[in-house]
Amino acid sequence: MSLSGLAGQPRQAIRRFLTVLLIVAVGVGAAIAITRVRLLAAPEQPIAYSHQTHVEAGVQCLYCHTQALRSTIAGIPSVERCMGCHTVIATEDETVQQLASYWERGEAIPWARVNYQPDFVYFSHRPHMGAGINCETCHGNVAAMDEARPTLRMDMGWCLECHLEQDPEHEARLLDCMACHK
Q: Which residues of the chain have pLDDT under 50?
């Protein structure tokens, strides 16, 4: 083999390496994008519920999510809570009639959860609400949503970032691993 034939081999190897690197980078980027889209997608719900419509009617978050101040979870309103208004409001609306059918059958509405935390994470709405953190901080502008959907990726980095922004007097407690992992 001549010297001129050997000179082209390193270039071919570099081209192959760069091609493989580009394919891997595109694949990783696509996987991240798909995961993000799935993460922030609105889950399918059994009844089309518009937060926007209810907020425009003057309903506050805590009227339906009554447990947020007293419990680890905000809670999903019962059919009874919904029917407290909808026995007289918008009774001819198809969605309200779907709601009424659950009420008549004595069944809970099987709502799909919108926001999740892994099993190893302890989260409570109570101290966050007590600290004056409003719902929109974590859940986005739900008041403008027809379909409730996650708006943020609530991961450990995001939580720690917020905890670091709080009063330094509480820093030791807020950065203690046991505050969130029990």
A: 1
